[in-house]
Specification:
Length: about 230
Amino acid sequence: MDALPVKEETGLDYASKVMMKDLDGNLLPVMHACGHDIHIVAGLGAAWALAKNKSEWQGTYIAFFQPGEEIAAGAKAMLDDGLLEKIPHPEIALAQHVLTDPYAGQVGALGGPFLSSAASLKITIHGKGAHGSMPHLSIDPIVIGSAIVSKLQTIVAREVDPFKFAVVSVGSFQAGLKANIIPDTASLLLNIRTYDENVQEQLITSIKRIVKAECLAGGAHKNLTLKSMILIP
């Protein structure tokens, strides 16, 4: 569940061989790059251990397995299905996530915030296509997009308080199909990480400002679209 479009290169017998189609119908290999399969095994293992050792604790233990985490849809779907009406109100909730450190078999704990919130945004730059031999007839969304990517890196470096945590990443830049054709549009997929909702809002505001300014500078401001895809508080 929740596999990502990453090829598993472990060489192990049980390495993922599953393929998925992207929006254009191309087949891509997928794997559990975020460790969601380990999360399920650990959750089942905890439930098994508690069930086998009831004399060591008391109360009611409820194990949750959230689907659709990568698209921020699983928890909402569970709530929409009436989850809160189906279970007693919990007195304590425990949540864990696997990491590469500490080593396998060890458990780590840390005071204060540790794993960040996440938000994803999609930017579509609407330029004007032309033949590569006549660039003066175009509004090149690739050039504008490249400027946006570079400028976005200044947000954390120059706008966010150094004592606060923030990350801005561009994970996808899609534009054009031919070497000699300047495309009409370019699309960027962004992911941001923070510990603080106010910082998250600051990043989104800065991203919108930079995108609009670069599109205005490049002449592609008329039909710009920028929307939030996923917001995980």
